UniProtKB/TrEMBL annotation:
It comes from the Eukaryota. One of its GO terms (biological process) is signal transduction. Residues 15-148 form the PDEase domain. InterPro entries: PDEase_catalytic_dom, PDEase_catalytic_dom_sf. GO terms for molecular function: 3',5'-cyclic-nucleotide phosphodiesterase activity. Pfam families: PDEase_I. Residues 52-64 have a biased composition (Polar residues). Residues 51-70 are annotated as: Disordered. It comes from Seminavis robusta. This is Guanylate cyclase.
Length: 240
């Protein structure tokens, strides 16, 4: 370890045990960002249940200082894991325009990978349904957990509210937005790197405005099939 960071290390740990504990926390936080791993997801669910299950009675020796400290550490660790997960998808719990901006950038990144042959799946096929599943099975449950633990205080309900509002708006506007994402990507790609894309700003803004006008689903059955679509066919496959 480099000597110039000695003061920083002194603030984080003072002995080998604390260093080991800190390293363990960092490793767990990095692993927490792997939300595709079902085994890790199941372990996180179990840790959350043990830390925050109010129906679970106290342990016989829970009054001891050691057990209380263990309980606090367990809660702190699982909260940190959920915080790092939330930071990964923070745009989904912010204003609609923030969510839309970063959703398009992710789409373009994945479409570029598909175009370059680094991905076998065309993200435009199922992106709309995949986002709905992402909200229902990952984003909103995560926001509810953050509200439950109260880590953000009164802001916790605000993040949940944004997530639910974005989900609703995506259901209304998402299909057209995916078309706009694709057209913008193809137009930018046809112009070439750094070439003239800004000159199409008015056209693209018009297209985006039209795409985000409130739109109803074609039918109740269409809505139901979109919500119930197997997530393996969408753009995201996540377990909470």
């Amino acid at each position: 370890m480099k000597p110039e960071f000695g003061q920083l290390r002194a603030c984080i740990y003072t002995n080998e045990d604390e260093l080991t504990r800190f390293r363990s926390i960092v490793v767990n936080l990095v692993l927490a960002t792997d939300i595709m791993d079902k085994d890790l997801g199941a372990q996180r669910k179990d840790r959350w249940a043990r830390a925050f299950n109010s129906n679970e009675g106290p342990l016989p020796s829970q009054s001891s200082k050691e057990n209380k400290e263990t309980e606090v550490n367990r809660k702190a660790t699982i909260v940190l894991e959920h915080l790092i997960q939330a930071s990964d998808i923070a745009h989904t719990m912010q204003h609609w325009h923030v969510y839309r901006k970063w959703n398009e950038r992710l789409f373009c990144e994945m479409y570029q990978a598909y175009k370059d042959g680094r991905s076998d799946k065309d993200p435009s096929e199922g992106w709309y349904e995949g986002e709905i599943g992402f909200f229902d099975f990952y984003i909103i449950p995560l926001a509810k957990k953050l509200e439950t633990c109260g880590v953000f205080g009164v802001s916790s309900s605000e993040y949940l509210g944004y997530a639910e509002a974005n989900r609703k708006e995506w259901v209304d506007k998402g299909r057209n937005l995916v078309k706009v994402y694709l057209e913008r990507f193809k137009l930018r790609d046809s112009v070439g790197p750094g070439g003239g894309f800004s000159s199409t700003g008015d056209l693209m803004e018009l297209a985006l405005t039209e795409a985000t006008e409130p739109a109803s689903m074609s039918s109740a059955s269409d809505h139901g099939s979109a919500i119930g679509l197997n997530l393996d066919e969408g753009s995201h496959i996540f377990d909470v």
